[in-house]
């Protein structure tokens, strides 16, 4: 498995990934900082306000969108010149090949979440935000958002192995996050069945007027259940598919 993971990391277009993450960070934190200032009459101008304003962009749109884009990048090389055939003739079982791509994707998402936390601290200090950081909900939200991406990551890896067109896969990612605007207004017991919404539910702090309705036990059940379903379906599809 280590060799497969190492191979996946060598194939990643790191320059493109880094540029995308930097641009996402700039857009997210400029918008979040602007909203925190402009809405200071309604919300206290402190770290929690800055955080949930950022989650309104990062967790609602960019995190699920980039999960799909990263998955597409991880399968882009194999779709070129029939490279799937070459990869599947290696001595590794097919399920390990698919699992290595999934693990690479969740590592990339973890890096994205760590970058989100770093940018949170930098932007807050740059705009001289007030108050004290409530570390517990922040860390819980960042880690929870990462874990909540697991079903979506598995689904996106599965879809990325099926889509040979990069443009088609990208359009699917973009159109899939649009319903989040409506679905995240529903309780998590309903909205979380659509995997693109789960990161937002997990990251948004509870106890605020704008907080989505999240019942922790049912939300965890939905995330675990959907992950298992997508894992089984993707493994069966990938192993049985005729790539010749």
If you had to describe this structure to a student in words, what would you say it looks like?
This protein has 244 residues and is mainly alpha-helical. The chain has one domain (2-240). It has helices spanning 2-11, 14-38, 47-79, 83-88, 94-126, 135-162, 166-177, 180-183, 188-191, 198-203, 216-240. Helix 1 (2-11) packs across helix 5. The protein is globular and about 60 Å long.
In short:
The chain is an all-alpha fold. It has eleven helices and no strands. It has one domain.
Number of domains: 1
> Low-confidence runs (pLDDT<50, min 5 residues)?
none
Largest sheet: none
Order of helices and strands: HHHHHHHHHHH
By DSSP, the count of extended strands is: 0
Overall mean confidence score, pLDDT: 88
Total DSSP helices = 11
Straight-line distance between termini: 24 Å
Can you tell me the overall shape? globular
**DSSP strand (E) fraction?**
under 5%
Q: Helix- and strand-based class?
A: mainly alpha
Helix proportion: over 70%
Radius of gyration: 19 Å
What is the fold's blueprint, element by element?
Elements: H1 2-11, H2 14-38, H3 47-79, H4 83-88, H5 94-126, H6 135-162, H7 166-177, H8 180-183, H9 188-191, H10 198-203, H11 216-240
Helix pairs in contact: 1-5, 2-3, 2-5, 3-5, 3-6, 3-7, 5-6, 6-11
């Amino acid at each position: 498995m280590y060799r497969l993971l190492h191979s996946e990391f060598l194939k990643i277009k790191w320059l493109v990934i880094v540029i995308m993450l930097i641009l996402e960070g700039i857009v997210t934190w400029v918008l979040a900082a602007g909203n925190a200032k402009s809405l200071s009459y309604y919300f206290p101008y402190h770290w929690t306000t800055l955080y949930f304003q950022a989650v309104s962009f990062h967790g609602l749109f960019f995190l699920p969108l980039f999960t799909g884009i990263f998955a597409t990048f991880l399968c882009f090389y194999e779709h070129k010149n029939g490279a799937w055939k070459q990869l599947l003739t290696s001595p590794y079982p097919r399920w390990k090949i698919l699992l290595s791509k999934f693990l690479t994707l969740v590592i990339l998402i973890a890096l994205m979440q760590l970058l989100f936390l770093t940018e949170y601290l930098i932007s807050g200090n740059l705009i001289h935000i007030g108050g004290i950081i409530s570390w517990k909900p922040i860390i819980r939200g960042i880690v929870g958002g990462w874990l909540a991406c697991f079903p979506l990551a598995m689904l996106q890896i599965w879809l990325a192995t099926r889509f040979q067109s990069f443009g088609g896969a990208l359009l699917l990612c973009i159109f899939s996050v649009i319903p989040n605007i409506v679905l995240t207004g529903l309780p998590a017991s309903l909205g979380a069945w659509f995997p693109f919404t789960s990161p937002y539910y997990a990251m948004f702090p509870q106890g605020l007027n704008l907080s989505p309705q999240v019942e922790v036990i049912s939300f965890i059940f939905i995330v675990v259940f959907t992950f298992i379903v997508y894992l089984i379906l993707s493994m069966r599809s990938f192993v049985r598919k005729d790539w010749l």
